[in-house]
Design brief:
Layout: H1 2-23, H2 26-35, H3 41-48, E1 51-55, E2 58-59, E3 63-65, E4 71-72, H4 74-87, E5 93-97, H5 103-108, E6 114-115, H6 123-126, E7 131-133, E8 138-140, E9 142-147, E10 162-166, H7 170-181, E11 187-191, H8 194-202, E12 208-212, H9 213-220, E13 229-231, E14 239-241, E15 244-246, H10 250-269, H11 276-282, H12 286-291, H13 308-315, H14 319-326
Length: 355
């Protein structure tokens, strides 16, 4: 009898231990971790009812806010396109002006939902900084602006002179690399924000101003005498610019990615703001019908309405329309498409199939 009592006592001691072990199984741990996953930014934006978009705010043609508080530019239109896809209203956007040093902190900290702010796609930003880059919306390269009467025609001519640059940018790093490669010694004046940098250049505190060529072209238009300044025929880097989301949120990243692709695909399909309603109602082209949500359920997989692409084009237009009104023939810049043309026209813009 004592023997059986000892066995029963031993079993009773084991049972609690076994129960604890069951509670701690790897399957249950995985379930617990899954339950603790952060809600996708997509759900947060939907529940909020508006998009918070980080922009630069001072670059005409890309993102510029006028004296009445109205935003315009190709980067702004990307924000509007995402809002149109989500809410069928491109005006449901709150813009946040962010300088180059605070933009990534604002995104990773959840202050903004996305960046559409002339941000260059690099490997370190895509990995260690924790960003996800949507398709490139503008292919650019770094340039140098100088005064037309300065006699400066190349980077070598800046020997012993001063150059203004915005801090915390690939521009600053590229400048250092290019000067070192050419054995040019120049004084570099860094600024936390773009406005003070261009103001310093305008005041003559530096002999050159370096940034993306498109930004130099845009900012030159705001100087007192734009024709007194020239952009050198030198390209110091590759600068693929586009919208950015925080890493490890595939649902939200997919929305921003495919909304951007929708602008490109619409141009290739010949769909514009003017004809989109007619094509939605009357087209018998299966690709167009699928793209505009007449057939199929492409939007469902994104957590959007199936006609999300229709909403984007109806409210914002296709990529060509966005480009032309902000940078191209309809704008003050008259900037040729160049690399920012469709792949079918010798450019780099290419969308995967909407299928």
């Amino acid at each position: 009898m004592k023997k059986w009592q000892s066995i029963i006592a031993a079993l009773l001691m084991i049972i609690p231990i076994t129960a604890c072990e069951v509670e701690g199984t790897s399957d249950q741990k995985e379930v617990t971790q899954e339950n603790k996953q952060v809600t996708s930014r997509l759900d947060i934006v939907k529940n909020r009812g508006k998009l918070i978009c980080g922009v630069e705010g001072g670059i005409p043609g890309f993102s510029f806010v006028d004296k009445n508080g109205n935003y315009s530019g190709i980067d702004v239109d990307i924000c509007k396109a995402v809002a149109a896809a989500l809410f069928n209203d491109p005006n449901l956007v709150e813009y946040r002006n962010l300088d180059s040093t605070e933009r990534f902190t604002a995104l990773n900290g959840g202050e903004v939902d996305m960046l559409s702010r002339n941000t260059t796609w690099t490997v370190s930003r895509d990995t260690t900084v924790g960003l996800e880059f949507a398709p490139t919306t503008f292919y650019d390269g770094q340039g140098m602006m100088v005064r037309a009467n300065s006699g400066v025609e190349s980077l070598e001519d800046l020997q012993g002179k001063s150059i203004c640059v915005e801090a915390g940018t690939t521009t600053e790093l590229n400048l250092t690399d290019n000067l070192r490669q050419r054995n040019v010694t120049a004084e570099t004046l860094t600024f936390q924000q773009a406005d003070p940098a261009y103001a310093a250049y305008a005041e003559g505190r530096c002999d050159g101003m370096t940034s993306d060529k498109s930004q130099l072209l845009s900012r030159r238009s705001t100087l007192p005498s734009p024709n007194d300044h020239v952009i050198l025929q030198v390209t110091m880097s590759k600068e693929p610019l586009g919208p950015v989301t925080k890493n490890n949120d595939s649902a939200w990243f997919d929305v921003v990615k495919w909304v951007t692709y929708a602008l490109i695909e619409a141009e290739e399909l010949g769909i514009t703001q003017e004809n989109v309603d007619d094509l939605k109602q009357n087209s018998d082209n299966p690709t167009i019908r699928r793209f505009l949500g007449v057939d199929g359920d492409l939007g469902e997989g994104l957590g959007l309405s199936n006609d999300f692409a229709y909403r984007v084009i109806k409210n914002v237009g296709n990529y060509a329309e966005v480009y032309d009104r902000n940078l191209g023939e309809e704008s003050q810049f008259k900037l040729p498409r160049g690399m920012n043309n469709l792949w079918t026209k010798g450019g780099l813009l290419y969308s995967p199939p909407f299928r």
